[in-house]
Amino acid sequence: MQPEGFLEKDVYVCESRYSTKARAFKKIKVWNFDPDHLKLIPRDKPLEPKRVISVYKERLEKHKEEIAELEEGEKLTEKERPNVILYNSDDTENTYYEQYNTCAGSVKTGDFVYVATDGGRQQIAQIDAIWSTKDGKCYFKGPWLLMPAEVPHTPTKLFYKQELFLSTVDGTHPIVAIVGKCAVLDYGEYICSRPTEIPEDDVYICESLYDESKSLMKKLGQEGLKKI
């Protein structure tokens, strides 16, 4: 078969997808073909595709040392960053931080994190404040972000794949409860950008607020999610 209305030099074949993360090829099982957009017609003579050596082989051989250096750089672990103290005139008993090192890496106010709760579940929260007490214990405070399953809704309501809802309830937790970092973006940010240091599976979208005292869901204001 061949596409109608295209020159032979403008027709290509694709049977695999390449994962940059795994650095591997994988066969495509299902191709999303739209018959209304492109019409296929029989060829006068069946085509026998022939594989050729990649035009990039020589380039890879020439720059293999540079590629090896880049791969090694990707394996380097994140360097420990200093704890950054934040002055707070309202509370002289505790020490507040703008940035703090945890077992899950460095976090700062405004970040979104995975939190291990008492029930063994893992939930998402935003960090509004980080502080340590005089006895050396460290805590953070911030609002929860809820999954669709945690919010009352009609059976027919649809959600985005990675959608969350900003709760009106804040929580205070020990800093050691943080088990990982994620990103929560406004709708406008989610459709056009991504944080480079967060994997795609850990990127979420939030455009609504859930008032737990009133069991009421409403759109976030024009300012969107809190930026610190």
From TrEMBL:
Major localization class: nucleus
GO MF annotation terms: chromatin binding
InterPro entries in the cross-refs: BAH_dom, BAH_sf, Rsc/polybromo
Sections of the chain in a coiled coil: 53-80
A Pfam family hit: BAH
One biological process term in Gene Ontology: chromatin remodeling
GO cellular component, one term: RSC-type complex
Residue ranges of every copy of the BAH domain listed in the record: 105-221
Keywords, alphabetical: Chromatin regulator, Coiled coil, Nucleus, Repeat, Transcription, Transcription regulation
UniProt-annotated location(s): Nucleus
The protein's name: Protein polybromo-1
Source species: Apis cerana (Indian honeybee)
